[in-house]
Amino acid sequence: MDFILLIIIGFTGTFIGTIAGGGGLISMPSMLLIGVPIHSAIAANKFSNTISSFSSFFVLLRQKKIHVKTALFVSPVAILGGMTGGLIATSLSEKSMTIIAILLLGVALLVSFIKKPKEELNTVDKVPLKVYPLLYTITIYDGMFGPGQATLQMYTYLQNGFSYLSSIALTRFVTFLSCFSAFITYLLNGHIKWEIALFLALGSFIGAQVAVRVAGKLSKKLLIGILKTVTILLMIQLTINLLI
């Protein structure tokens, strides 16, 4: 196994995934192309996302882009969703989950064009309760497969008054919890290959650290443009995967 290639895959996927989501559509196919078994690839991806997501969240927490209590409010939903997704990963086909992902991304993109986000607030103490069912659905999907889940979360928080960096912070925290929960189920089922997961995680950690620092220097207009572009590319890639 080419460990340098795994580091590059981890870096690229997480850098893009941190800023706009969709990193899974880079890392997952790349690992499959170099011969990593599907369940081992998902397990390694969950492990690396656990490490990188918490590291990027911690940076933004120290920069006071998010409050601890804001993140803690969504913790139960993220943990339950990740565990649920991990447990039912073998119950639904990849085709079914791909169709769901395309529909969810399409709705999120449409809403971003026709519905003006709430005025950006300086401090958001908690995520509105009405958003929790959607977050639970997203974290279930993340636990099962995941490409596009971070993008969906970003739209959700932006539409409810969070700043872009706060949305990144909360997305990374929820991703950390759901991926950790899902990873445990893969670990208990013997799917983890540490010689793959550790090098992928190293690249992901570096990618996450670079991404949160780059995002802080870009304008919100540019970041929103990147988010929408990634969403469209995700939908195209998922559709191609569905048709092949």
Mind explaining what this structure looks like?
With 244 residues, the protein is mainly alpha-helical. It has one domain. Helices cover 77% and strands 0% of the residues. It has helices at residues 3-20, 24-33, 38-62, 68-87, 94-114, 132-144, 149-158, 164-188, 194-215, 220-243. Helix 2 runs antiparallel to helix 3 (38-62). The longest helix is centred in the N-terminal third of the chain and has 25 residues, at 38-62. The mean pLDDT is 81.
Keywords:
77% helix; 244 residues; mainly alpha; single chain; globular
Task: Explain the layout of strands and helices.
Blueprint (H helix, E strand, L loop, with lengths): L2 H18 L3 H10 L4 H25 L5 H20 L6 H21 L17 H13 L4 H10 L5 H25 L5 H22 L4 H24 L1
Helix pairs in contact: 1-2, 1-9, 2-3, 3-8, 3-9, 4-6, 4-8, 5-7, 5-10, 6-7, 6-8, 7-8
Protein name: Probable membrane transporter protein
Family: Belongs to the 4-toluene sulfonate uptake permease (TSUP) (TC 2.A.102) family.
Keywords: Cell membrane, Membrane, Transmembrane, Transmembrane helix, Transport
